[in-house]
Automatic annotation (TrEMBL):
Protein name as annotated: Glutaredoxin-dependent peroxiredoxin
EC number in record: 1.11.1.25
GO-annotated cellular components: cytoplasm
Subunit structure: Monomer.
PROSITE patterns according to UniProt: THIOREDOXIN_2
Limits of the Thioredoxin domain: 4-162
Source species of the chain: Brassica campestris (Field mustard)
Function: Thiol-specific peroxidase that catalyzes the reduction of hydrogen peroxide and organic hydroperoxides to water and alcohols, respectively. Plays a role in cell protection against oxidative stress by detoxifying peroxides.
Length: 162
């Protein structure tokens, strides 16, 4: 499947997260993004070095600025279970705006066409690193990394596009 691209409507699919009341929620992506401007950024793995020290902190640090430019939701996405994503999110006590969501079986990642085969590293099939800007379900920016790179999907890259 071809990777998601600018002009595409994001596919609908289910993702899971723990809400502010610590209740597990499984919702459709369309229910989170319809009528909103949303950043969906994907990482290959929770607790991994580049994801934990660069990618996620950038979105947390720039969240207020992104919101001031009309972004309604900032969603961190990974092929992990919701318990891992919840635990990872808690390692950022300063976070007020980034929602950590799980694609437990990688089904939504597959719908996006953004799978990354890391079986040789013992990680299975994960998500490529990416950042999408979605406006009312339509992709307006699709910054997708090659391999393990981190060159086009940062919060600063999305800010430049807003």
């Amino acid at each position: 499947m071809a990777p998601i691209a600018v002009g595409d409507v994001v596919p609908d699919g289910s993702i899971s997260f723990f809400d502010e009341n610590d209740q597990l929620q499984t919702v459709s992506v369309h229910s989170l993004a319809a009528g909103k401007k949303v950043i969906l950024f994907g990482v290959p793995g929770a607790f991994t070095p580049t994801c934990s020290m660069k990618h996620v902190p950038g979105f947390i640090e720039k969240a207020e600025e992104l919101k001031s430019k009309g972004v309604d939701e900032i969603i961190c996405f990974s092929v992990n279970d919701p318990f891992v994503m919840k635990a990872w999110g808690k390692t950022y006590p300063e976070n007020k705006h980034v929602k950590f969501v799980a694609d437990g079986s990688g089904e939504y990642t597959k719908l996006l066409g953004l799978e990354l085969d890391l079986k040789d590293k013992g990680l299975g099939v994960r998500s490529r690193r990416f950042a999408l800007l979605i406006d009312n379900l339509k992709v307006t920016v699709a910054n997708v990394e090659s391999g393990g790179e981190f060159t086009v999907s940062s919060a600063d890259d999305i800010l430049k596009a807003l």
